[in-house]
Amino acid sequence: MGNCWGVKIKAVCPSHSVPNSGTNSRSGRESGSSSRVSSSSSSVPPTPRSEGEILQSSNLKSFTFNELKSATRNFRPDSVLGEGGFGSVFKGWLDETTLTPTKPGTGIIIAVKRLNHEGYQGHKEWLAEVNYLGQFYHPNLVKLFGYCLEDSHRLLVYEFMPRGSLENHLFRRGSYFQPLSWNFRMKVALGAAKGLAFLHNAETKVIYRDFKTSNILLDSNYSAKLSDFGLAKDGPTGDKSHVSTRVMGTYGYAAPEYLATGHLTAKSDVYSFGVVLLEMLSGRRAVDKNRPNGEHNLVDWARPYLANKRKIFRVLDTRLEGQYSQVGAQKAAVLALQCLSTEARFRPTMDEVVKTLGQLQDTRDAARNPQPDQKTSVQSYSCNGHKSRREVQKMLGM
Ligand SMILES: Nc1ncnc2c1ncn2[C@@H]1O[C@H](COP(=O)(O)OP(=O)(O)O)[C@@H](O)[C@H]1O
Ligand SMILES: [Mg+2]
């Protein structure tokens, strides 16, 4: 690929510095903790433990390798939808009712992820996805139809997400990918936050652990769904404050305390959410060595600006000028800054993030469809909007 982003953190001993592996593969997933998971919805069964239990209990279809070969027309290279550390993802077609392969253009479209490399780590990630996506149903989590486990083949069959990943929309240049508007960015942020909040609110928390733009997929209406549960992990139970794991994830997104100690909490996901929100606000990648010295790491570069209300606008994507209200932009920037707090306890919960982002959408909707008795107006500002600081503080409730 030749770029310098998306470098995976491989398993390293906590409290040692993380080596820059320069590879996009993941390895060394932890063995499951002893805790059991059930979702906040009472109809969801507790997380099964053994592989047999996971595969038996899920409502997923077990596909044969030949079925998926035929559904994807022999994994045609021109039908690749994307690639990640696990393998390539191909477009395919199934009959809607029987879920058997059909001709391209008929039935439902699916996305088939195929593990490229053999080995225990790949199998564990595959099983983690079957485990979590097989039992959770939520509008902001991608739907898994089934899997294939045959000889050394490990595949996953998902609903097709027509607008692909958030990463492509934010960072790919070209006529197909127009810059995502402010409103769509905020909609995506809210949807993804709801997905994380759902996982964190499960009876026993689930920590997603790999929250980043390439794992957020978009449907035709730009509703966000979390995908790629390969690194998801049961959260701490009882009076435990964290789970101890080997450090896994992606450079630029992992929380500092997790990198330093291997202690994983839901607040690690909140930090990663802050990084993604900042990427959405700025249109810049979390890590990009093509930027000038001192700007390689987005969080380090942006933090001083986010902390200063008058300088927040230096961080905002210039392609968004004129699309946001000054108040909305500042609220979003303050939220990102809170999520990026170095100390985990100062970060908001994902429920609080959902609430704040929900209020931002409400303000926007109110501005678009003012009620007859509504006196406040929210205007659109560019980076150089002229509201006085005092007025802004008042609107922000400071
Ligand atoms: N259901 C889907 N619909 C459309 N594109 C998808 C789908 N699933 C994955 N992709 C594409 O493939 C890429 C890699 O998928 P992902 O599940 O993150 O794999 P990995 O586990 O290898 O990181 C995504 O970033 C996206 O571009
Ligand atoms: Mg991925």
From TrEMBL:
GO terms for molecular function: ATP binding; protein serine/threonine kinase activity. CDD domains: STKc_IRAK. Residues 20-44 have a biased composition (Low complexity). GO terms for biological process: defense response. PROSITE patterns: PROTEIN_KINASE_ATP, PROTEIN_KINASE_DOM, PROTEIN_KINASE_ST. Residues 371-385 have a biased composition (Polar residues). Pfam families: PK_Tyr_Ser-Thr. Residues 75-360 form the Protein kinase domain. It is an enzyme of class 2 (transferase). ATP binds at K113. Keywords: ATP-binding, Kinase, Nucleotide-binding, Plant defense, Serine/threonine-protein kinase, Transferase. Belongs to the protein kinase superfamily. This is non-specific serine/threonine protein kinase.
